[in-house]
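User: structure tokens for this one?
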Amino acid sequence: MTKGEGIFTCFCLLALSSSSLAQSSAGGSASVEPTMIIDKPTAGMLHRGTYALNGNFFEHGGILFGISVGLLDRFNFGISYGGTNILGTDKPTMNPYPGVNVRLRILEESSIAPALAIGFDWQGRGAYVEDLKRYTIKSPGFYLVFSQNFALAGNFSLHGGLNVSTEREDGDKDLNAFVGAEKSVGRDISILAEYDAGLNDNSANALGSSRGRGYFNLGLRWNWGRGLVLGLDLKDIFKNQQDISVGNRTIQIEYVGNF
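Assistant:
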């Protein structure tokens, strides 16, 4: 059994072992706040004793698995690890280090003010680019983010934040900004949109240097029941890094349960 197969097996066994305590983060019936828009964080939190398992399947046979845990209602901790060529016939190339993320909510949401959270996320998206010591999409690094939910024919959420990535070998150390939205469609489906301005990815040596359009992403989340949510994403629709037909197509699987 390969390393990737072993991680996937553990993911499935843990999900199946606690299906009676499962929850969901998608659709109008969602019982858990989403903690990510697509690639960027929200101010959503996992409550104490709740955990989320995530599997992301991306280009070049890439797989990224992660787990996040609500240690307290206002404090979450997570870790992730993966690589490329895990699927396919080529030799797998694993990421150089695990990605660690921590999040602290400092203000709760009210009817007149959004929730506010600060955190650190060391996990980038896509393949790791060894020459530049960064991921294809840089990790958020240190961030501040707000989220506000509205009752509008279901759930409608707005998110926005600032982040400073620790991936700076390309010479771009700028403060970055991002915004996003989520809208439920019926009980089980959510549609997501995210714009990452890419202000820290437009210097002469950065991957987005030639265009500077930022990263526009769209996503769909479908609650399959028993805590399992399937996600489909189209990333970099503005073609900030390269010419692609529609968008970088990825698949995400999430399972949310309780200890």
